[in-house]
Write a structure and sequence with these properties.
alpha/beta, Rossmann fold, Thiol Ester Dehydrase, Chain A, 4 domains, twelve-stranded antiparallel β-sheet, seven-stranded parallel β-sheet
């Protein structure tokens, strides 16, 4: 009752966190037992006993309905579900004040340390750390900073005669964690703040209260202690379930009890993305984290003057629990995206300037992980090439987007020697989306200028690749956009300078461009050997397949001007589960136009060319799927490194839909003799004096 779906409404009744804990548990049951109907039904009734018959009827109907959503709610005869939206921190109200005193559980290492390190750096907060490890009881001989791991292993062997090597290795691992904790505390103190470390088990209420009562003033609490022991439900033992839950739940209850009569300003806790979605092998972890979240929601009801924050993280790369090989494997198998450490810290610090939200989920758009459809229909995304908002400035926005062949199945249809390549047209589309996200009431994309591809994008070995897409307002309706990437080491640390892949200037307007119509050129006879698809789409020439097999006929060619028929007619998925995504800049047909420049070269010079620069690309009308268009491609100049073309996409009456002016393609290799098709094409040169034929 009022504890699963309705806590996100301002008019929610009293929240009971235990219900949320059960809901978290059942969401994992829903994942592990896919053939079982699992339902968590939340009811919002002021006097539920008086409505028991109605509640029973609604519950049974929900249990027997065809809808598989696990978490639902009913209020005033209406059915409710949860949804999620991408957003960025508001950054309008600072939560932490300089020199605050912050109590942190589990803060001497891992993710928590990386975050409090940044908090100390910015706010100079003083720290009271509660952690279960008695790091100061370690024999000093093991703490010599000059000792290597091999030397420490030797000391342990001397002190642990007859002990199995695996136990000595575990002792070494514990010792290394102790040494790291001491180094971390020393580093924090070096920044000029007070750091008090207390060996306290957060499940021990008396020990927690004793540690808290030593201090007259504590401004905020950060409950980040936790542990994870992945195991599927049939093999999950009660002792491990209780251990995982107790650190989170009892720890939270003990902290709230210790602070019951104290004045403090804010309380943060770490949760997990699994609390929102459920996750196989983590029934205890999801239950505990969902309980934590609603516990703080309840505290917000009781103390609206305080700030309460629940941070539901995806797994971090290179730090935290996901460094455990078993946990890492489980999460990878479940399709969870890993968050680079630097980015996670940046998200947290930005959120410390936002008092408007109480629960934040930091994750990629993992649709395969989202069984309840909280992320919405992937086929109806307004901007499918934009994922996570990274940064908002007065001038614009930056988004993150992870290219992944499992999700971005279109990449399988554009490969060179089995290496997936991001297309020039998809780069144009991606930047058009960030520009459209900023253009407000100017909904019509009318022109792209100053476009270039300094460095192409490859997915080497099929590995996912993170892109950063930025758009900045230049003038009314005009946006400068870029796509960059940043190399990160296995720990998620940024290495080197960002690499620029694409950039361009986009213009949006409230109305489309004035219609344009041309007189179609006279068609010049052309013929060729064999079937068109084999002639055009060969991996040694145009390395497009499936989705991008869009050239359906060669209508005319005179050596300089090529006229083809192109059509977006594929029924394949572009993204996983999505055949017809919403696009801003018609990437499939724009790519088809680009292909014709390459085809013109194969008919004449036998040279491979790739998109490089565009002076102007104009959209006059929206294009449609399953409709034929003429693409008129004229070669303007041939330079040392590039060729330049003009292209127009028209219908059979000469109405212009897309116009590309001064399209440069960079010259690559000559085709091998066996891959050339010059001698398979028959056409007449436009130069009447020459009167020559090529065959």
């Amino acid at each position: 009752f009022d504890s699963v779906v309705f806590p996100y409404r301002e008019d929610c009744g009293d929240i009971h966190p235990l219900f949320a804990g059960l809901s978290g548990l059942l969401k994992t049951v829903n994942k592990e037992m896919p053939d079982t109907r699992v339902k968590v039904v939340d009811f919002s009734y002021k006097q539920p006993k008086k409505s028991i018959e109605r509640i029973t009827e609604l519950f049974l109907n929900e249990l027997l309905c065809d809808n598989t959503r696990c978490e639902v709610g009913y209020k005033n005869k209406k059915r409710y579900g949860l949804s999620m939206k991408t957003s960025i921190a508001d950054r309008t109200q600072q939560i932490i004040s300089p020199k605050d005193t912050l109590l942190v559980t589990g803060g001497a290492g891992g993710i928590t340390y990386e975050i409090i390190k940044k908090m100390v750096e910015k706010y100079k907060v003083n720290l009271i750390i509660l952690d279960i490890n008695d790091i100061y009881s370690t024999d000093q001989k093991y703490l010599d900073k000059t000792s290597t791991q091999a030397e420490l292993m030797g000391l342990l062997k001397e002190d642990m005669p007859g002990v199995k090597p695996i136990e000595i290795k575990r002792a070494l691992d514990r010792l290394m964690r102790v040494r790291l904790s001491l180094e971390n505390i020393e580093y924090l103190e070096s920044m000029g703040v007070s750091v008090e470390y207390n060996c306290v088990d957060v499940t021990d209420a008396k020990a927690v209260k004793k540690a808290v009562d030593k201090h007259e003033q504590i401004d905020g609490v950060f409950h980040a202690a936790g542990m994870e022991m992945s195991q599927f439900i049939p093999k999950k033992e009660l002792w491990s379930f209780e251990l995982v839950v107790d650190v989170k739940v009892k720890g939270m209850q003990n902290l709230l009890a210790a602070f019951k009569d104290r004045k403090y300003k804010y309380f943060f806790t770490f949760s997990s993305v699994t609390a929102r979605f459920g996750n196989e092998g983590q029934v205890d972890y999801t239950s505990a984290n969902d309980f934590l979240g609603k516990t703080l929601f309840r505290q917000k009801q009781l103390h609206p003057e305080r700030t309460y924050k629940v941070y539901a993280w995806t797994a971090w790369g290179g730090v935290g629990m996901a460094t455990n090989p078993t946990v890492k494997k489980v999460l990878e198998e479940r399709g969870i995206q890993f968050l680079p450490m630097e980015q996670g810290v940046k998200f947290f610090m930005a959120d410390l300037l936002d008092k408007t939200e109480s629960e934040m989920v930091f994750s990629g758009l993992d649709y395969s992980f989202d069984k309840d459809g909280l992320l919405g229909d992937p086929g109806d995304m307004a901007f499918p090439f934009l994922d996570t908002p990274i940064e908002k400035t007065p001038a614009g926005m930056t988004y993150s987007r992870v290219l992944d062949v499992e999700r971005d199945v279109f990449l399988h249809d554009h490969t060179m020697e089995d290496v997936p390549l991001f297309l020039g047209a998809t780069g144009i589309e991606t930047m058009a989306e960030v520009a459209r996200s900023l253009s407000e009431d100017k909904a019509h994309f009318v022109e792209l200028t100053h476009f270039q591809i300094p460095y192409g994008i490859k997915l080497l070995k099929g590995r996912p690749k993170e892109l950063l897409i930025s758009g900045d307002h230049e003038e009314d309706g005009v946006f400068k956009c870029r796509i960059t990437s940043q190399f990160k080491n296995p720990k998620g640390l940024v290495m080197g300078e960002p690499k620029l892949h694409y950039e361009g200037q986009y213009r949006f307007a409230q109305k489309p461009l004035k219609p344009k119509k041309i007189k179609l050129p006279q068609f010049n006879r052309v013929s060729f050997e064999g079937d068109l698809e084999t002639l055009v789409y060969n991996p040694k020439r145009l390395f497009m397949f499936g989705l991008f097999n869009t050239i359906t006929d060669i209508n005319s060619f005179d050596g300089k001007t090529l006229i083809t028929t192109i059509e977006d007619k594929s029924k394949k998925e572009f993204f996983k589960g999505v055949k017809e995504p919403r696009f801003v800049a018609a990437p499939i047909l724009v790519d088809a136009m680009f292909q014709t420049g390459g085809l013109l070269e194969f008919f004449t010079t036998s040279r491979t060319v790739l998109p490089f620069k565009i002076k102007s690309l104009k959209f006059y009308k929206d294009v449609e799927r399953n409709r034929e268009y003429f693409c008129i491609t004229k070669k303007i100049t041939s330079g040392i490194e590039t060729n330049t073309y003009d292209l127009k996409l028209t219908d059979k009456k000469g109405n212009v839909f897309i116009e590309v002016s001064r399209f440069e393609m960079v010259k690559l290799n000559q085709l091998d003799p066996e891959d050339r098709i010059v001698d398979r094409v028959d056409f007449t040169f436009s130069n009447k004096k020459q009167g020559a034929k090529v065959k």
